[in-house]
Write a structure and sequence with these properties.
331 residues, alpha/beta, eight-stranded mixed beta sheet, 15 helices, 8 strands, globular
């Protein structure tokens, strides 16, 4: 395995894909950014901007094209599409990539229909690839503008993980390598669901004390789930777990937090979703709770979010149910 991967392909020209392409190009790599169709690619080439990331110029060194026009090859392939769209995107690459190519999911979620984590989806669709995951406390606008950001990049093989961090990292974008793929995936998926709950607390004006309690107890749920599914504790308390939870539960830049705020303010789910911003946690909540129940893991906050989103439980009823839980020891 080479020490540096020079040719990097980013599939998905939304906010996150564009941001990653920008920061990787600035690190000196040859970057190709793939949009979903030829018309979108032509518009982005002409205006050097993604409509999902307005006001942020696409680096002049990035080639923008469409999957319909060009084969998506490269030394490393990053797939920056929503979690529920990963399977379709990865399946389209079958037979087009060289054996042993690292394929990095940049989505934070669990496939709703199959309960598969992102690297499991890649392994099923692209058995010749080396699945990896990138996650951590990062907003696309910050990364695209070159503001300091640290994330976790995990692959099953440590040499691959180290190569990826060297290839994609820079002074402003610092990936920390890991072999705890499952822990990184769990942190990214669970924190989105908990961020919706944090947003509801803010939208209902329940106060800073309630927000702190919610985030702390939510982290306890994340830890319980992670332990049951084989995550390493140090991963869950690191960037892709606790770090991402703190960021997502406290900032209106978070789509999941913003969805929760809208719900807390009394908007319907349909109204809250009309912002055009995809909140991954809305798709992950039900499957996360199902997986927790399958292993007898107590996740009352995540369950409350799922009940609001998927079963139509009223916000006030969900809050009351949490507040009326029996007193117990912390843990």
């Amino acid at each position: 395995m080479s020490r540096i991967a020079d040719r990097v392909t980013v599939i998905g020209a939304g906010a996150w894909g564009t941001a990653l392409a920008n920061v990787i190009a600035r690190a000196g790599r040859t970057v190709t950014l793939f949009a979903r169709d030829a018309a979108t690619a032509a518009t982005m080439t002409a205006h050097r901007e993604s409509r999902r990331l307005p006001g942020v110029a696409i680096d002049s060194r990035i080639a923008v094209t469409a999957l319909t026009e060009c084969r998506a090859d490269g030394d490393v392939i990053l797939i920056a599409v929503p979690a529920q769209a990963l399977r379709g995107t990865a399946s389209g690459l079958a037979g087009a990539i060289a054996p042993g190519t690292p394929v990095v999911s940049c989505a934070k979620g669990i496939e709703r229909t199959t309960r598969r984590f992102m690297t499991e989806v890649i392994a099923e669709c692209l058995p010749e690839a080396v699945p990896a995951i990138l996650s951590g406390p990062s907003f696309a606008a910050d990364v695209a503008r070159g503001l300091p950001t640290a994330v976790t990049l995990a692959a099953p093989d440590e040499a691959v993980a180290q190569m990826l961090t060297r290839s994609l990292g820079s002074a402003a974008f610092r990936p920390y390598h890991s072999v705890d793929v499952r822990g990184v995936e769990i942190g990214g998926a669970a924190k989105n669901v908990l961020a919706i709950a944090a947003g509801i607390v803010t939208g209902r004006n329940l106060g800073a004390s309630a927000a702190a309690a919610l985030t702390t107890r939510g982290f306890a749920e994340l830890m319980r789930f992670g332990r049951a599914y084989g995550a390493q504790p140090e991963t869950l308390t690191g960037l892709s777990g606790l770090g991402d939870l703190i960021l997502t539960c406290t900032s209106p830049q978070s789509r999941n937090f913003s969805l929760g705020v809208a719900l807390g303010q009394g908007r319907s789910l349909d109204q809250a979703r009309r912002t055009g911003q995809l909140a991954e946690g809305a798709f992950t909540a039900a499957v996360l709770v199902d997986m927790a129940r399958a292993r007898h893991i107590e996740m009352p906050i995540a369950a409350a979010v799922s009940a609001v989103l998927d079963a139509g439980l009223a916000i006030d009823a969900a809050i009351e149910a949490l507040l009326m839980r029996p007193f117990r020891a912390e843990g």
